[in-house]
Every structure is written in structure tokens, then in C-alpha cells.
Amino acid sequence: MRDTGPEAPSTDAAETVPPIDWLPSPTLLIDAQGDCLAASDSACELLSLDRKALLGEGWINTFRGADENIRWIASMAGLKGGSLSMDLAANTQLGRSFQLEFKPALNTKGLLFVCLSETTSERQALWATGHYKTLLDRIQTISNTGYWRYDVSTGSVLWSDRVFEIHGLEPDPSGVNIDTAIAAYHPDDRQRVRDCISHSLESGEAFEFDLRILRPDGSIRYVVSRGEVENADVPGAARLFGVFHDVTSEREEDLAKQVTQERLRMVVEASRDGLWDWDYGSDVIFMSERLKEILGVTETGNAFDADVVRAFIHPEHRKSFYSLIDRSFNTGNRCDGEVCFVRADGTDGWVQVKAVASFNSDGKPGRVVCAVGDITERRQAEEELRQARVDALEASEAKSKFVATVSHELRTPLNGIIGMLDLLTSANLNSDQQPLADIAVDSARGLLAILDDLLDLSKLGANRLELNPVEFRPYDLVQGVIHLFAPGAAQRDMGIFLDVDPQVPDAIVADKVRLRQILSNLIGNALKFTDAGTINVYLSMTEGTDNRAQLRCSIQDTGIGIDGDAQARLFEPYVQASGKTFEEFGGTGLGLAICKQLAERMGGKIGVESQPGMGSTFWFTIDFAESDDAVLDEHLEPAPTAVPMKFRGANVDAAPEPVPTLHESVNRPPSKLEAVPAPSADRDPSKPHLLIAEDNAVNQRVITAMVSRLGYTYDLVEDGAQAIEAVRGTTYDAVLMDVQMPNIDGVMATRLIREEERDTDRYVPIIAITAHAMRGTKQDYLAAGMTDFVPKPISVKALAVSLHKLCGSKPNDGVDEKSTALGSAGA
Question: What is the DSSP string of 101-130?
Fold first, then answer.
């Protein structure tokens, strides 16, 4: 091969080049380097080029990718005999192709003849054959279809590759015989195939039938075979031609749909729901048998006139039913509702409707399907339950009113008893009289404690007990409760130990009064049921629900213990461990029940661990809020660093818990009455002057005696109307207002007094005094315009603190408070 462009033939070669322009077949003469030396006229005509363009390397450029191959063949010019040929496509004439046959030129030195013939038609035909075969294969694959041909005369069956694939076999170009083909079908289908083939050959009619193919691996394919008869009128030349269409996926989907439909039918039957299917806007609604049963329809069939079906909906509920359907159309979700309907016999019933609505392809409302469940019995049960709840609430309300009334009626005489006993014990009694008075005081206080327990239990049962969270130090609270029981422990030579975990916050926010109530009950029980030994009180932290920290307190004693059966019912009202316990120790069995409900109301729990003769450990937990140290009351002393404390024997400091110091300065609004009447002859102008409004004669004597001993003067009236008139004409430092009085009660009298004060600069503090520990709360009275609250039986200390706070005078230092009557937080 040369590295330069084409050159003209040498003189020697030209002398030996035979003339070929006359040759009828397209021919070129080339040398050993592949350069064209001569071209026939027919070659120029075939290639549509002039002779000059073909000479040299020009003819090589006529064909695509021919350079290397042609020059290699030209170099083989020395071969003798035979020829070489190759097919090449035209380079510039797209779509044309040629066959080049190389033959040695006889009687020449290394020259070759190149005979040209166009193969465009043949190549196009070959390409078309391959293309259409590929296309046919793709069609068969996409449509799951294969073709077959049965030659009746030879008994041979030709299958396409796709048919072999459907049968689960490797393709065999020779095909199969008719017996092998029929043997591939399911045994139940073989005779039907033979009959169909025979009928088509006899009648010449086309055929179509379904059959199942049994693959070698045991799987089944479902196919549809369609075909027709060829050469039916030529004796001995009849053939069948047809296709197999694999419909396995469709059949499996149909079977799955059938299974789903059957499952749906079974679910509907199991759920006892009826079905309502409405092609929206049509006049026909489908009703399932179950829905017919619910409505009491006895007619046969499931398709009913739409107006007939809609008439079953109660007239008052039709609007809500159609609103339910509209909501499903608007949201695209299932919508539920309860609808009243009228049965075929005219009786009413209730159903729960679950409606699903859909749109047509054009976006218009298309279909509504409703699942309808009969809920008549449930609605009746709910109505009965609602009525029973109303009755129960009414009974509870009646019980609460009864307890409140009894509370008032009991507290009123108790107020007189305890008040007079307090005054009596403060008098100069001799050694014989003092023990008798002390016994009477203790008995009255015991009766008051029972009454308070009954009230607390009633309030908890009626869910009327309100918690009052305040900030306090838990250490101080527990220490104060232990101080209350220290004298009793000292008399029995018992020890009370307090152990506070360092993790317990210095200050918390919770209901201090109720926490003290639980502690007092549990420590009191431990002291009651322990003859000798110790009582240990532990204060620690624990983890409650939602990983929240809780305060935990446990009281461990070395007492008589409790058996397992009694522990299970120990926290129920009016329950004690045993009848022997009641006989020996007494009690109402209410304390632990109240403790349980209080602990639960405060977000915690209560429990006990005990064995007979081994003592008991009662524990409880409560929720609390963290205290903000930045706003902690500056009057609260820091908690002691030495946490454990104990009391034992005669060394116990048996002093009662001191009266809490008032940390908040309460300023009484100035009373600026324009006309101040002269005081009565027996009134000391230097002492604060009070108005007492109380209708009960005993309570009058108690209250007047108390305020006199506290250093106050007073005027006394018996109802609210008199109290209003008295306030109009006299300036008082405070008013003690009984809540329940004839004519105008204390609450209404307070409101009227405040109404008259509205347009003036007058203001008189009013202290509510009531035995209604359950009916009203301190907040209720404050909302009515009262300034403070003191419950009956009246505690001298509570009354002194309230008057000092409002009147600004110091209570009599000689007052010795011995009453255990609950303060304002206990009412």
C-alpha cells in the first residue's frame, strides 16, 4: 500500500493493460496496489461516475469502509485460480450496495479484474425479512401471543418460539407432532381440543377455544387458541393456522377478584353490615340482603327504585344523610354518621352509615357506596346508660346536698360546743375540773375529725375537691407533722425518725394542706398500731409517668402488720384490717380511702408493704412543680443541712406546731365614711369595732366571747338585712358575716354592700363564716365580694389571724389556741 495519493499507471503497465471498455458486464481492472487502471463503460454507468473519477484511488472512495479490505485483496493478486468477493455499501449513494468479485487477469502481471454487481434489492429484501421477523417476535412477546401451523397430511405442528416459551419448552425449529402438542394440554381439555380440530376441518369454520397448558414443571398456563382452516377445498392439503394468546395474568387477576369478592362478601356477612350501592343520579339503588333485612324489606331481588329506598330514611334525617354524602364527595374520604330510619313496618331504628363517594372520569359525581350497620340496640343501650347517668348524677347531687346540709347542722352545734370548751379550758379550772374539760374537748375534736373525713370523702366522690398548689419546703412540712405526733410518741417511749434524700428539692409547688393531711393520717396510723419500736419517715424522689419526677414519702413502723387479704381492700371506704382491729383501736375506716383518692388527685399513687407481726410500710407519691428560686419567699428560712431528725422518749419537744408567720403584708383598704356616729356608751374607741351578723344564738355567744377575748368591740345583728342597715350607719373595722341567715343571706348581703360602696370611697372588710364546708369554697365567697373566710367550728387562732390581717391590730397575746378545727383550706 502506498502512503501517497493515486498516481497514473506506469508506462510498462499501460502497455500491458488490455482494453475493457467494451465489456458488457461492469468491470474494473486494478493493480497490486488497488489502483484502478481501466473501467468498462458498463461499470461507469452502474456506479453513475465517469471513467476519470474511477481511475487511481477514486473507485475505492466510492465504497464505504473499503480501503483496507480492497488493498489487502489487491495484494493477493498473485493467487492463481479462484476468486474473492465482498459486499460493500455505496459511500455517496445512500441505500445502494454492491458485490465486488476479484479475479486474476490472465496474461497480465499482477492485475485483477473487479466484477461489479448491484445487490441493493437483495440486501433490502434480506433486511426486510429480518426486520419483520424481529417485529413479529416483539408483537408476540408484547401480546403474549405465539403462532402455530398444523399440517394435517403429515401430522406435524410448527410452533413459533413464543409458543414453545408458553409451553415451558426450548424452541425446536422442526416443531412437534400433533400427539405431542395435544399431550401438553391439561387432561380435562384434550378431548375438547380434538373435537374442535375435527369440527373445523369438516366444516371449514374458524375456531376459538380456551384451554390450559400443563408445563413440565407442573405449572398451568391459561391460553386462548384462535385459528382458521387453509386449503380446505384441496383434498389432502388442508392445514390449520392459528395463534395462542397467553391469558394467564388476566385469569389470575380474575381469580383474585373472585377471591376478593368472596372475601368481601364474607366480611360483610361477618360484620352484619348491609350495602347500599348507588350509581349517582340514576333511578336504581342496589341493596344487599343484609340491608333488606335491616330495613324489613321482604321483596325479592336487590335492585330497587331510588325513591323507594330513600323513603326509608327518616324525614328529619334526610338532610344530614345527603350532607354526609356531599362531604364524602368534597373531601374524597369516607364519612361516617348515624341516621334514623323507618322500617317497612313503620317502626323507627338507627343505623351507622359509612359513605364513600367517587367521581367519573369526566369529573362528575359517579358512585356512592354505603356500609350500613344496625345500631338500634346500641342507641337504646346508650339512652338507657345516659338516663342512668342522669339518675346517678341526680342521686350524687342529692347525696352531696344531704351531706352539705348535715354538715351545716352538725357544725353549727359543734361550733358552740368547741368554742365554749375552748373558752372553758382557758378559764381558771381546778385540778378536778380541768381533766373533765380536756376529755370533753378531745371528744368534740374527735367528732369534728370524723365529720371532716365524711366531708372529704363526699367531696372526692363528687369530684368537688379543689387542689390549691402553693410554694413550700417539703422538709419543713414533714417536720411540722412529726412535731404534732411527738408528744404521743414520747409517752410510749417510741422514736420517730425523718430521713430526707438530698435529691429532694428545697422548695416545691403542690397542695400543702392535702399533703399534710395524707402525712398526718399515715403517721397517726403508724403510731396507733405500734406498741413499741420506731417509726421511720423517708422523703425521696422517684420517677412517675412520662418520666416526670415525683415526690415519694414512706412511713415505716414496727407495729402489728397486715395480712395479704386485708391489704387488697385496705384503701376502700369503711374497711379495716379486721373486726378485732376495730374493737381494739376503733376508727371509721375512712382515712386510708381518703389518702388514696387525694394521692391520685395529686397525680400519684399509694400502697402498702406489710407482713403480720413484722410491721408495715405505707408509701405514696405526688406530682409537684419546680419552685422558682428567684421568687422564693424571702421569709422562708434555708433548709437545715443536717437532714436526719429523730424524737425519742421524754426528751421529745412536745410543743405543738407554731402558728405560721404571715409572710405577705395584707393592707386593708382605708375606710373613709363621711359620717362617723358616736360610739355606744360601753364601747372603747381605742379598740377595733366589729359587726357580727349571726342568727344562731349559740354561735352568737361563741363568736362574741371570742372577739371579746381577742380585744375587739362589736355590734350584733341577726340577718343580712340588718347587716346592710348597720353598715350604712356605722363605720366598722370588719364584718363577721354568717353565710346562711334568714331574709337575706350573707352572700347576697355582701353583694348589696359592695354595690352601695361602688360609687363611694367606702370599703369594709367582710369575713365569711360558714358551716357549709362543701357547698361553697373560699374562692366562691371571695368572688362574691367577701374579703376572707373562716369555717365553722371557728378556730380562735384562725379568727385571730384573719382579724389581725384585716384590722391591723395585734391579737391578744394571752390567747391559747387548743382547737384542732381545720382552717380555711380545710373547708
Answer: EEEEPTTSSS-EEEEEEE-HHHHHHHHHHH
